[in-house]
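Listing S7. Sequence submitted for prediction.
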Amino acid sequence: MSRRAARVPRAVDLASWLRPRIDALLGRAGCSSVVVALSGGVDSVALLAGLQRAHAGQPGGWALRAIHVNHHLHPDAARWESHCRSLCRRLGIPFTARHARIELVAGASVESLARDARYALLRAAARQGELVVTAQHLDDQLETVLLQLMRGAGVSGLAAMPELARFGRTWLARPLLPLSRDDIAAWARQSGLEWADDDTNADQRFDRNYLRHAVLPLLRERWPAAARVAARSAAHMGEARELLAELGSTDLVGLQREGALDVDRLASLSPARQRNVLRAWLSGRGLPLPDTESLERVRVELREARRDASPVVTWAGAEVRRYRGMLYAGVPQQASSTPVETPDWAWQARRSLELGPGLGSIRLVRDAQGPIDGTALPKRLAVRFRGGGERIRLRPDGPSRTLKELLRERGVLPWMRFQVPLLFAGEGLVAAAQLFTAAAFAAQPDSRVRYRLEWRGAPLVLAADPVADRLPSTRV
């Protein structure tokens, strides 16, 4: 499982080399401590040991710890975890293990599934103000550029791995990117380190391994500086990515209203700028980017559909709909969870009520200007969602109207009309989110106790078209 190699002449003093780089990365990220993603292989072991030695020379400096993700995909996975734990114990570094449960899907890349699971666990485990560092190096960057090229990636993909990037609530850094695999391995041997060998790294059924063992030796034979040249090209692409991001942000200012995009204004841009601003818009909403075909469908099909249609383009993890001349992006409806209904809400004791993933929470808040008469509310309420046929009277002398009709008039997006929380007292409808309050529960000028129904973390509910522009907000 592990190996100790004979000492060789030191190519680089990794600890001394790392110290100013980590200080600079911590400063750029605004972080004060470091957590190493420790796989147990030579690269991450060298990174951890180098950081430990750099850290040891700085009393009172940044804190250091390690996280190991056990994917449970290899017979030696438990031994690798044990090796990492023992290494950290010897180095005096706090150690945490996280366990991935990966469901293998036919046709899906095991490499991608493992990587996604690993990064998700690292994001969740990282603390505020803690810089996550990984051990990717110059040769990894070359492999990434070539893999992205073979996948037909654009500027963002060909920019490959940045040295520093946002990572959930904190940042991820790759301080070893300028060093080659041989540089790092030479220092590990020089330092007498032990590391775990993963025999799957020789399995050429995996794309990255095929590149590493079958393709790169031929490239280096012809172009010895291939890795550094590719890294330079990736850096140029990184600059281009930043410029495109700036242009996309500028274009969004004139196109976006309350999170939605104006279709006609979008069409006034050149096709290339349309694609760029669509990517910027989707990224800003935290959604996965579409492939080329889906992006083109969003750009062309949604615009050219009939004005009275409600077209939609869906891909893994996201969808875009058109309604009243605007584009709306979100999670596909079939992927959304069923709203959580609560038949017996003791609202005075349990102040906040979760509605389900993506739907936020509600609570009744005491407010001197609130629309609900607190003295009319029973101690227990019910929260439901539309089932059809609900009616509400908005004025004591007014007609009873269907909720369906009122939601349409108010500009609630059609696909969100069954996601609006409804507050009931017995069988009587008290309020529909912050949109409507029934006359029987409405506060009067002399009401002593008033409440408003607050919907926190609400999804986009109201249409951002010219009719809805008269409303105070598209979030209710």
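Caption to Listing S7: primary sequence and predicted structure tokens for the chain studied. The domain at 2-226 is CATH 3.40.50.620 (Rossmann fold). The chain has 13 helices and 24 strands.
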